[in-house]
Amino acid sequence: MDKLSRSKSMAKALRKALAERQVDLPHSACLEIVARQNGFRDWNVWKAASDEEVTLSMAIMVEHSREEEATRFYEAAFDAVRIGTYVHADELVAVDLRIGETKITVSGSNPRRELEPVRGGPFYPKGKGSVSSVLRLEVRDPEAVLRKAVEAGAVIRDELQVSTEGYRVASVFDPFGHIWGLMERGSSMQRGQA
Does domain 55-124 have CATH number 3.90.70.10? Predict the structure, then answer.
C-alpha cells in the first residue's frame, strides 16, 4: 500500500474512532488532520507531493527453482510479507515481497542466460558475496534480527559490532549468496549529523 492509500485509510480510521466518541468530522477534515500530522500544510499539498514521489524496488536473483525457498527464508529472517507471485507455464518464476516500505522481487535467473553468459544477466550469485551490491536493513534491534536470520539459515559475515559512529551493525550472507547489512535504525541520520 502506498503512502497516499495508507493516509486515506488512516483518515477513515480516525473518522471512525471519533464517531465512536460522538465526534462527527467529515472525511475531508480527517484527511487534513492526517496530512498535518505528516508534516504537510494540507491534504492538497500532500497529494501533490505523493503524485511526484519516486519509489525504488529491486529484484534479487536466485537460482532458478529456488524462488519459493528464498521467499520462505526472507519471511523467516526479515519478516518479509508476500504481496504477489508470478507464474509462467505453471511454474513459479518470481515472488513480490515487502520488507518494511521496500518492494523486493525474488526472481529465478533464466537458465538459458546462465548457460550463455554473453546474452547478459542478471545472474544469481554463484558463491557467498559474489554480488555487486549489499542489501541494507535499518532495524531497531540488529542483534535480534541477526539472531533470527542465522536461525533461518544465514551465515554471519561480520559479527555484531559498534561502528565508529556509535551504532550497532552486522552483516550476513543469505543462503542464496546475497549480503545483508543490518544497521541500527537512526544510523543514517547520525551519519548526516557527523
Answer: no
